[in-house]
Amino acid sequence: MSKISVIGAGSVGATIANDLMIQGTASEIVLVDINKQKAFGEALDIYQGAPFCSPAIVRSGDYAATAGSDIVVITSGMPRKAGQSRLDLAQANVNIIKDIAPQVVKAAPNAKYVIVSNPVDVLTYVFHKISGLPENQIIGSGTILDTSRLQSELAKIFRISPKNVHAHVYGEHGDSSFVPWSLVHIANNHVDAYKESSPDKDRIDWHQQYAEIEEFVRTSGGQVIKAKGATFYAVAMSVCHLCKCLLNTAGTALTVSTLMHGEYGVDDVCLSTLALVDNTGVRGKILNKLTDDEVAKLQNSANKLKEVITQINI
Q: Contact 277/248 with Cβ under 8 angstroms?
């Protein structure tokens, strides 16, 4: 029996709640939003599909209703508007997190907190600074969606299941993210060696197009927003996968955003590297050996985030 509360009943929050219901991840799902009518409507709409899913309670409520939650997912925030700077968006959503955190933490002090709102790394850092919770209970969704985009694209190129693609996006969930290509493996072969091992080698178009693929991953969200106005299906699936991992005793390696303490020369900032996640929250980081160039890219990403953090009012 598990209880998951979702703060924010917009497109992302409602889709997460719906996916949690369909997948049977939680036995109780609570939706909280400043717009109580919207939260009520979304919860009722999802619950009325209950006969087709595993039995679960889906309801809306206030922060007190999150008491006893195993996981609290925070999706509240303003979307970036045309012409709005990243910094302006950061401060607006930091203010929202500062309002939410004390209320929900008071009600559910033992929950694992998954921060999804953007800029996710900055907001995860702020949540660390203001919530008073142990670090292992705070997880930013980080680059799990970027990593999914990368894995699905490589799977297409190499004509193989995404489950056989071990590739991850490190750094911020944003423009300074990067792929540590030294760690990318396809079915136990390094990405540059797999083609020659594959029965599909005559049909695989691989010419070490690293920059092209990284650009695709970084701009995918923008493409979706341009075409349909918002992204919510893939991000919801990635967050629901993270929730499943947070209910499991086995550790799962995920690129979530966590607070750095000198790893790779990066300190006092949240960004994504591989971490082990289980029902205790963040069990710890997996310190894969990176090349000097990859370490420099991670440090550059950290510096970009710190530039934003120094300019916001926490």
A: no
* pLDDT by 10s per residue, the chain, length 314: 899 999 999 999 999 999 999 999 999 999 999 999 999 999 999 999 999 998 899 999 999 999 999 999 999 998 776 666 666 789 999 999 999 999 999 999 999 999 999 999 999 999 999 999 999 999 999 999 999 999 999 999 999 999 999 999 999 998 899 999 999 999 999 999 999 999 999 999 999 999 999 999 998 888 888 899 888 999 999 999 999 999 999 999 999 999 999 999 999 999 999 999 999 999 999 999 999 999 999 999 999 999 999 999 88
Q: In what order do the strands lie in the sheet with 189-190?
A: 165-166, 185-186, 189-190
Separation between Cα atoms, residue 272 and residue 254, nearest integer Å: 9
Q: Using CA atoms, how far apart are residues 245 and 276, in angstroms rounded to an integer? A: 9
CB 272 within 8 A of CB 171: yes
Quote the distance between the C-alpha of residue 18 and its chain's center: 17
Catalogue the E-assigned strands of the chain: 3-7, 28-32, 57-60, 71-74, 112-115, 138-140, 165-166, 185-186, 189-190, 252-254, 257-261, 267-272, 275-278, 281-285
Instruction: Tell me if the pTM is above 0.70.
Output: yes
> What are the residue numbers of the active site?
173
The DSSP bridge partners found for residue 276 are 253, 284
Which of 288, 1, 271 lies closest to 140 in space, CA to CA? 271
Residue 13, SS3? helix
CA dihedral 69, 75, 77, 79 (to 10 degrees): -170
Chain-centroid distance, C-alpha 274: 12
CB 279 within 8 Å of CB 249: yes
Residue 177 is encoded by which pair of tokens?
A: 């993210």
Reply yes or no: is the peptide bond before residue 102 cis, omega within 30 of 0. no
User: From the CB of residue 187, how many other CB atoms can be counted at a distance below 10 Å?
Assistant: 14
